[in-house]
């Protein structure tokens, strides 16, 4: 279903309301639960050293601590990013499709999406400074602004861009890890990747140190958004295409696509 946003002729009004899709709501709820659980041990309840201190800590060689850490490492930590990215792109696609059906001109449609995700970026910046330095909404908002420029691009082009970015990002990451392992050795590399502090750049001794940490990370985030875009944009584009093509709105028609996506996602998750 190719309908780039360029013509945008008004469509006949629908007589029946479109039923709400439950799958994105369920996925969003699971994702937010996972992010909250992951942040408990990496940002909110911190442990100074000890085995697995970044994922909850093992106390007195507890079997239950180890089992919990194994579960959360497998199914919680860093698992929210792919879902969040896909759902955010899916949301952009739903908004673009709604504006298309209502006959919005392309510039006006882009403006609506840009305002919405510009507000998300502003909210993310405030959240990062005043509450939590590990905020990700700023990056998603800024990338959402960029996606407003892509709503008229054809589906095949978007999929090619997403696939290329995904492949390049993973190849560069793999090359970087192999290079670091060759230079540092496997043991030191593992310590570097898994033993950092999660409390921010500076020790948290007061709320003023929270604000200072947030400001430092905010400035760094603007410089890091292009790098984050390589990781986040491919799945955001995939989510956008899923919404544009109505994959979740009509799962019976897109059964083969859904099975293929489930298989690829399962392999990637493992």
Automatic annotation (TrEMBL):
Keywords: Membrane, Transmembrane, Transmembrane helix
Listed transmembrane segments: 30-47, 80-100, 120-153, 159-180, 216-243
Alphabetical list of PANTHER family matching this protein: INNER MEMBRANE PROTEIN (PTHR30590:SF2)
Protein name: DUF418 domain-containing protein
Native species: Candidatus Rothia avistercoris
